[in-house]
Amino acid sequence: MKELVFHRQFLPAIERWSDKVGFLDGTYRATFAEHGERVLRLADGMRRHLGLTTGDRFAVMSCNSHEYLELFHAGFLGAGIINPLNLRLAGKELQHILRNSGTTVVFVDAVFADHFARSIAEVRSELALRHVVLIGEGDLPHDIRYEDLITGGEPVVPDEPEETDPVVLMYTGGTTGPAKGVLLDQRAEMLNFYHIGLAVDFGESRVYLHQTPMFHAASMGGILGIPATGGSSVFVPLFEPKAVMGLVEQHHVDWTTMVPTMIALVMNHPDFDPARFASLRDLVYGASPMPPALLDRITSAFPQMNLWQGYGMTECSSVLTLLTAADHRRGGSIVRSAGRPAIGVNIGVRRTDDSVAGAGENGEVCARGGNFMQRYWNSPEQTEQVFRDGWYRTGDEGHLDAEGYLYLVDRLKDMIVTGGENVYSIEVEAALTAHPAVEQAAVIGIPHPVWGEQVHAIVVLRPGCEATADELKEFARTTIAGYKVPKSVEFRTEPIPLSGALKPLKRELRKPYWPDETAPSPAA
Length: 524
Known about the structure:
single chain; alpha/beta; 16 helices
């Protein structure tokens, strides 16, 4: 079958909106026709000059850009399986992914070319890597230049792939362990696009700002849905609050996606003014828990805005559930939920014995739908572990209420067991970040000789603010039970380490306390 392939959406869009300027990247401007021709030439150049075929893997290490979008679209037109690389990868992590994936071509921009070259220098001869393509100008390590590929290709329309043809190999963020390669096919990605589109309207009037990293699954709706439906794409290379505010104003952006950390950084910037976001009609947030205090600030600052929360993961192309704009307006306890399943997705909660949990009963969140990965790359055992009885085990703990809203409690691996009591780090973090002096908080379990683990908070205060450990403990005690209150508080002046997707790297935070990775696993 070939109904759910990108060809069926992309090529008609290029023809229908051919004269519309729909791609804005710094001083770069392109119509749909120009974008389409560049993508076709790129796909042909990748086959003709790099030797790539449909099943070959090519990686991209680049800031957000129109070139990144072109590479995604070329991959979806059959030029190969795109492997988007996390920009914060250390050398060993990068080597692991290139070795594990068998990537043969890497596209790298001028910002990351030196880092990439240094990271793989000692092992390049051991990799399947044949070519390094430089995006942009500069005298930096490369074999071929990106623009030469485009001028050396022909604008020919390739044969349509099958729905089951793999198209994306996206490695997980590695916040709790080594990154795993998630293999997604055309059908899964297109169904994910449809699931999003049934909730948040796409359309030719849309102006979307790509500010979440384009290597992240949260970007896929904008990468596929906006160009396929005639909307305009605006790019910010690397997230920077002042640049985001300027682009929203300049291009009258009406839709974007952000993680809570990004929203907080924008709202805490000295140049922040809600009036600068007057055009922003829809804001989708997700990828990490939203602190209730921050959600209250957003609601107060942007009463005109439709807020949407998306919960999902790389393994499902991005979205499992949605907390809609109507849900946010309804308010009450449901704004603490992750919403209800997207159309086309089923959600269930299972006990440890795999029986179905009742309404309000916590268990492991499980899901199924046509938007899931085919498998983990080169990891049949791990694939078998997460797929059982047709359901994907998310590793998240939560429950469903009587109306079908999903309430997430924590990552199973982030749950702290202290003195036989379960403590959910998300709940403690929410209590701490409600304090007006707290900028960031991450909560982990650290060893305790009697209790097994104790609740430990790592806190970054807002500039110019002060608070003591005792003050924060007493503040938290007003909203959470005493056994959940941090027994120790560590203050830091530098930001909490984040993954490329701006999630706290709790694996790194645990290392000083569990040096041999001996932290207990509640999921076991």
